[in-house]
Every structure is written in C-alpha cells, then in structure tokens.
Amino acid sequence: MNWITKVLKFGEKIKRVIKKRPSKEDIDNSDWTSCCQGPILKKELEENLFVCPSCKKHHRINCRQRFDIIFGKNNYEILQTPIPQDDPLNWVDSKSYIDRLKDARKKTAMECGVMVVATQINNIKITACASDFAFIGGSVGAAEGEAILYGIQHAIENQQPFLNFTSGGGMRMFESLIALSQMTRTTLAINELKNNNLPYLVCLTDPTAGGITASYAMLGDIAFAEPGALIAFAGKKVIQGTIKEELPEGFQKSEYVEKSGFVDLIVERKNLRERIGSILSILLKKNSAINSETNETSKDSRTLTKAAS
Ligand SMILES: [Zn+2]
User: Fold this and answer.
1) Ligand 1 centre and the CA of 40: distance in Å?
2) What is the pLDDT of residues 244-258, one digit of tens each?
3) 3-state secondary structure 158-224
4) Distance 54 CA to ligand 1 centre (A)
5) pLDDT tens string 80-93
6) pTM of the entire structure?
7) Ligand 1 mean position to 58 CA, how many Å?
8) Are residues 78 and 117 in contact, defined by beta-carbon separation less than 8 angstroms?
9) How much distance in Å is there from the Cα of 248 to the middle of ligand 1?
10) Are 244 and 193 in contact (CB under 8 A)?
11) Ligand 1 mean position, distance from CA 51 (Å)
12) Residue 262 in 3-state DSSP?
C-alpha cells in the first residue's frame, strides 16, 4: 500500500466519523434526549411530565403537551385564530422568512407560534394560550399577536379569566415594526381584560425573553413561573458587556427573578394545575371552602379581582 492509498483511506475514515454526527433533525426524531445523567429516553421523560427525575430540570414542551398536562387530554377545544398575510416585508436574509415559516409549520403542525384554547380548570371556564419555542424560537409576529388578541377577546365575550403560558425569545425581527407593535396591541388588550374585571394569569416558562418580557409576560395579576426558567429582557452576555461586572449565579433564572419580585410563585409542573385552579377559585370566589356563603368576605365576587387589577 503506497502513501496515496493510505491518505485516501484515512480520508474515508474521517468522512465516516463526520457522517456519524447526528443532525438537528436526527436529534428531534430520536427516542433519546440528554440531561444531567447523560442520555434519557424521551418516553421516560414524558411519563414524568417532561421533568428530569434526577435534576428536576423542566424540559421545554409544545403547546399540546402543555395543555394535556394542565387541562387533561381532550379536555380543551383549540380555537382557530386569524392568520394575517405571511411575510409582509418580503424578508430575506440567509434564508427567506417564507421558507422559515414553512419549516416551522411543518415541524410544529401549528399555523403560528401561539395556540389558544377554551377549557376549564377547577370547574371554572377559562381561555388559555401557550407559545411553542420550536416555532421560530417562540418569537412574536402579527399572527401570534392576533392569536393572543383573539384569545383575550374570547375571554371577554365569555366573561372568563385568561391564562397565558409564555415562552419565546421576543418579537420576530423578520416582521420588524409590525412585530414590535404587537407589544402595544397585547398590552392594550390586557388592559381591556382588566377593565372587565377578569383575572389575567401568566405562567412564565423557559425561556421568556425580550419583548415578551417587556409586554404581556409581565402584566399578569399573578405571575407563576416554572423552576429554572430563563426570564430575561436582554441576554446575560450583553448585560455583562455593558456594566463590565460579573453577574451572580443563577442570574435571570426564575428563582432569582422571584427574589426581585417579578414572579409571585414558582410552581413545579406537576402542581401547576392545582395551584392555578385554587388561585382562580380564590380570585373569583368559587368552589373553595374559604368562599362558603357564611364567609363575610364573599359579599361581592368581583372585589378581589378588582383589587388585583
Ligand atoms: Zn437532569
């Protein structure tokens, strides 16, 4: 064997090693994912509500998984929200926005990154929405803004509380100002909810950042968060570069944000249904032992809600 064939064989070996590395799609389609203890079966994680049994990391989940866990399978009705014109700015960078949308729709089986449902919790009828981080990083464009507005309108028309599971990196840059205006639109809609004395509850999930934190994620009457969720406006590196200081351990995690008062309650995924249900019962003075008719404070079922808004 001369040196040329040796080099060629070595080249083949390298090619094989490079080929073996899984692509993003391979990882998505695999039965395995990884956490603190190395590989873990997705099935095993799912049985534990997508929470790692060892380190309690709350893994990211999609909207359907979220609603199945909180409201129960087949216990909610998905509402069709309006979809405005795709790609109004004809945005193209390394890839066109239209192609990104196509890929996201195929990957998530959703028309936009926000899903709105009519459901109930603790026998209280509510409207709820959740965001899917897998849909272009959970970013908010016109369609997502419309979905949230539609959900709030549904809540007001039916005089129901509105529950929002937030996640996402912020406003969608491919829609520029149109995306940014969703911050104002959702904020005004939430004000309408409060004018109607309807509770607005937020549950911050990993990650909630950018314009989402700067608008509807921080306007809840009560703000829940899942443990260890990233809750931020600007990224840690940006802040560190600006103030030229080391940032403390756990900076921008829900436990840290709770200490500074931006989060009211950190609730593990397995307890969310019960905690949200009991808070709503208290706010609306329904179904709860403390709300019996003999209780003097239950004269006006809306007083506490008013105080909260
Ligand atoms: Zn783990």
Assistant:
1) 9
2) 999 998 999 999 999
3) CCCCEEEEEEECCECHHHHHHHHHHHHHHHHHHHHHHHCCCCEEEEEEEEECHHHCCCHHHCCCEEE
4) 5
5) 999 999 999 999 99
6) 0.86
7) 9
8) yes
9) 22
10) no
11) 8
12) coil
